[in-house]
Specification:
Layout: E1 3-4, E2 15-18, E3 23-27, E4 37-41, E5 47-54, H1 59-68, H2 83-90, H3 94-106, E6 110-114, E7 120-126, H4 127-134, E8 138-143, E9 146-151, E10 165-169, E11 178-179, E12 182-183, H5 217-223, H6 227-231, E13 240-245, H7 251-260, E14 270-274, H8 288-303, E15 308-313, H9 320-331, E16 336-339, E17 341-344, H10 350-365, E18 370-373, E19 398-399, E20 407-413, E21 416-420, E22 423-427, E23 431-432, H11 439-446, H12 448-455, E24 463-469, E25 487-492, E26 503-509, E27 515-518, E28 521-524, E29 531-535, E30 538-544, H13 546-564, H14 571-582, E31 590-591, E32 615-616, H15 618-624
Parallel strand pairs: 13-15, 13-16, 14-15, 16-18, 18-20, 20-28
Antiparallel strand pairs: 1-26, 2-3, 4-8, 5-7, 5-10, 6-7, 8-9, 11-17, 12-30, 17-19, 20-23, 21-22, 24-27, 25-26, 29-30, 31-32
Cofactor: Ca(2+)
Active site: 292 (charge relay system), 296 (charge relay system), 547 (charge relay system)
Pfam families: Pro-kuma_activ
């Protein structure tokens, strides 16, 4: 669905397509990125892990089965499967699994895990062994202060595994994913413009409402009508929240947050699960990513204080992101699963997207909703790493939120007044989140450069996927968009490490394509109307991003699952079905967001790619999904 050039872009992501006994073109090569240094052949005896994704047997039937489990008219209704049942129905058979395992072992590789879904196999071997099996020497590279390893050339799946193995993940160890957390700008603006230190520390019995930028989960519950569930005794007890993340953290921060708010939580409610050895050393406690993990746990666990929490921690390299989801789903312990990390959809190779999608459909078959942040660069997700004006803007979406089996969490701005040095800015009604409302003020008093450096592109992610077709739940829905025309990406030659002052063309995206629209629903994400975080033993204010919305929705759906005493399964048919029933009427679970844009798409009194179906009335949503209140 997209046309790609085989030249480098500034982040230099190498996602080599793997074919059965043949080579295909690569996307976003490393070789012309001036910031990447080839350090030569990697240590031959070093042991690395890979994951092989296998062909799904009857993918269309697997998708239909997932939808039927949440269809009250289906005999499959609420008959959730186990991982072994998924493997029996849709994974490879025992003979094919044995063929792959025997081949890997014959090449000297050690098979470390055959997932119960019979769709993934993990193995490890030395760089020398991996190079011999998959056809390319492994080199070491260094960029942006990090060293990683990747094939120096094009790799192939051995021909004798044709028809069974679709792709190999993890040969390229380059970190790809980033967290979706945003803070009020603290640089490029005069003192007093942004307030990152809270005016007061929250207490369990605070009588006054919190100020914008200092909201807690208690404020969230009041603003989106969660409190009637608590009054009915629904706290998430008996359910387990799943958090997928790529950075370490301190459990004490999460407990400190909940205890300060007076939330009744079990003292041992958190369980950490290290996947592929856990986060990289640079992503340990105290790192930027640690703030992401901390807020994910604080928010989800604060919304559903009675639930247990299981945190899956993986390295941001190689096959870590895939293995993280696969492990959570294979364990089948969590009842919900959310992630606030992602990358522009077009940075992912098609075979990687397919492997993730199979895991997400498996989760749906087991009853586990997967929720992901939609990104924080508005409609221009790729420009979070290829910034304007060094590169042109490009309408793009974030993955995994763009997957049709993942609930995409979008962002809004709540009504409030911002007190700035040169005058106040008032947001009168909840609107789509984007900092275009600050453009005139910032450019007038601080200049256009400051605006583009600190305030653009910032907003709730949303748009039209170019890799996932329009799903049935969005068919015939007013406001659903197709891809726009004239979407080409150019970057300055100097940014790409080339001589000259002009721009170089990198990619075209197809127009008029009926792709999956996102987000699905939205909640407050603007740091100016945002939240407190308790991190490293200190309170900080002015945080936001769809990073908050994903775990908040995780907590909300955990409450609903507890209230219904059942897992929820695939959320999209249920939410879009409820919208077709209730619209924005008195008992609707949805609140129309009719103001603002996400820098391109307008929020309207219909579904739209800025805020999706709108924000939520959680109590009405719970009733619509079968909770008796």
């Amino acid at each position: 669905m997209r046309t790609l050039t085989a030249i480098a872009v500034v982040i230099g992501v190498l996602t080599t397509s793997l074919a059965h006994g043949a080579t295909t073109s690569t996307q976003f090569h490393l070789d012309r990125d001036a910031r990447i240094v080839d350090l030569g052949i990697a240590p031959q005896s070093e042991v690395r892990q890979i994951t092989l994704s296998l062909a799904v047997r009857n993918a269309a039937a697997m998708e239909a089965h997932a939808a039927s489990i949440v269809d009250p008219s289906s005999p499959n209704y609420r008959k959730f499967l186990t991982p072994a049942q998924v493997g029996s129905l849709y994974g490879q058979d025992a003979t094919s699994i044995a063929q792959v395992v025997n081949f890997l072992q014959s090449q000297g590789l050690t098979v470390t895990k055959v997932y119960a879904n019979n769709l993934l196999i993990s193995a490890k071997g030395t760089n020398a062994q991996l190079a011999a099996v998959f056809g390319s020497p492994i080199h070491a590279y260094r960029t942006l202060g990090r060293t990683y390893e990747a094939p120096a050339g094009t790799t192939v799946v051995p021909a004798n595994l044709s028809g069974i193995v679709k792709a190999v993940h993890g040969l390229n160890g380059r970190p790809l994913f980033h967290s979706n957390i945003v803070r009020q700008p603290a640089s490029g603006v005069a003192t007093g413009e942004s307030k990152l230190v809270p005016s007061r520390v929250p207490t369990a019995n605070a009588a006054a409402a919190s100020l914008p930028g200092e909201y807690t989960v208690r404020d969230l519950a009041a603003k989106y009508n969660v409190n009637p569930l608590y009054s009915a005794g629904v706290t998430g007890a008996g359910k387990t929240i799943g958090i997928a993340t790529l950075a370490g953290y301190r459990q004490s921060d999460a407990y400190g947050y909940w205890n300060a708010l007076g939330l009744a939580v079990a003292p041992n409610r958190i369980t950490d699960v290290l996947v592929d050895g856990g986060p990289l050393p640079d992503d340990g406690p105290g790192s930027d990513g640690a703030g992401e993990t901390t807020l994910d746990i604080e928010q989800s666990g604060g919304v559903a204080p009675g639930a247990n929490i299981r945190v899956y921690l993986a390295p941001n390299q190689g096959n870590g992101f895939l293995d993280m989801f696969a492990t959570a789903v294979d364990e089948n312990i969590v009842d919900t699963l959310s992630v606030s990390w992602g990358a522009a959809e077009i940075f992912n190779a098609p075979e990687d997207l397919a492997a993730f999608h199979a895991v997400f459909i498996q989760a749906a078959l087991q009853g586990i909703p997967v929720i992901a942040a939609s990104g924080d660069a508005g409609a221009f997700d790729i420009n979070s790493v290829l910034p304007y004006p060094a590169c042109t803007t490009l309408l793009t979406t974030d993955h995994p939120a763009s997957d049709t089996a993942v609930l995409a969490a979008g962002g809004t701005t709540l009504p409030h007044t911002q007190v700035h040095k040169y005058g106040n800015i008032t947001i009168p009604t909840e609107r789509a989140w984007a900092w275009d409302y600050l453009r005139n003020y910032i450019t007038q008093y601080y200049g256009q450069t400051t605006y583009y450096t600190d305030y653009f592109p910032v907003g709730g992610g949303g748009g039209v996927s170019v890799d996932f077709g329009r799903p049935s739940y969005q068919n015939n829905l007013a406001g659903v968009a197709s891809t726009s025309a004239a979407q080409s990406l150019y970057c300055k030659a100097s940014v790409l490490g080339d001589p000259g002052t002009g721009y170089e063309w990198l990619i075209d995206l197809p127009p008029a394509t009926p792709g999956r629209n996102l987000p699905d629903v939205s909640l407050n994400a603007d740091p100016y109307s945002g939240y407190l975080v308790y991190f490293e033993g200190q309170w900080g204010s002015g945080s936001g991003g769809t990073s908050f919305v994903a775990p908040q929705l995780n907590g909300i759906f955990t409450l609903i699952a507890a209230g219904r005493n059942s897992r929820l399964g695939l959320l999209h048919p249920q939410l879009y079905g409820a919208f077709k029933t209730y619209g924005y009427g008195a008992k609707s679970p949805f609140r129309a967001i009719t103001a603002g844009t996400n820098l391109y798409y307008k929020s309207t009194n219909t579904f739209n790619p800025a805020t999706g179906l709108g924000s939520l009335d959680v109590t009405n949503l719970a009733r619509a999904l079968g909770v008796n209140l």
